Amino acid sequence: RGHTVVWNSQLPSWVSSLSGSQMTTVLKTHITTVMTRYQGKIYGYDVVNEHINEDGSIKSTPWTQNVGNTIFSIAFTAARAADSSAKLSLNDYN
């Protein structure tokens, strides 16, 4: 199982300076690169990791600050396109 493709806790500092459209491009490229590299070797991925607060609201992260809640649809759409047979998950705690 692949853990994790998108996580706000492990980002290079330059990501925060990107515009929304640049961030979307970087996100899609990253997901496509990782998931096509391991296609057929990893059965499933935690696509988005720890982006929901304990009260159910969406966390404020560099991703959500620049692309809003569309982070989820962008990430899952890119992941499905990269590997149509992989099991895709949203990973969080509590």
Q: What portion of residues belong to β-strands?
A: 15-25%
* Shape verdict: globular
- Indicate the mean pLDDT: 95
Low-confidence stretches: none
Number of strands: 3
Largest sheet: 3 strands, parallel
Structure write-up:
Keywords: Carbohydrate metabolism, Glycosidase, Hydrolase, Polysaccharide degradation, Xylan degradation. This protein has 94 residues and is an alpha/beta fold. The chain has one domain. The chain contains three helices and three strands, in the order E-H-E-H-H-E. The chain has helices at residues 20-37, 62-67, 70-82; strands spanning 2-7, 44-49, 87-91. Strands 1-2-3 form a three-stranded parallel β-sheet, with helices on one face. Strand 1 (2-7), helix 1 and strand 2 (44-49) form a beta-alpha-beta unit. The two termini are 20 Å apart. The relative contact order is 0.26. The mean pLDDT is 95.
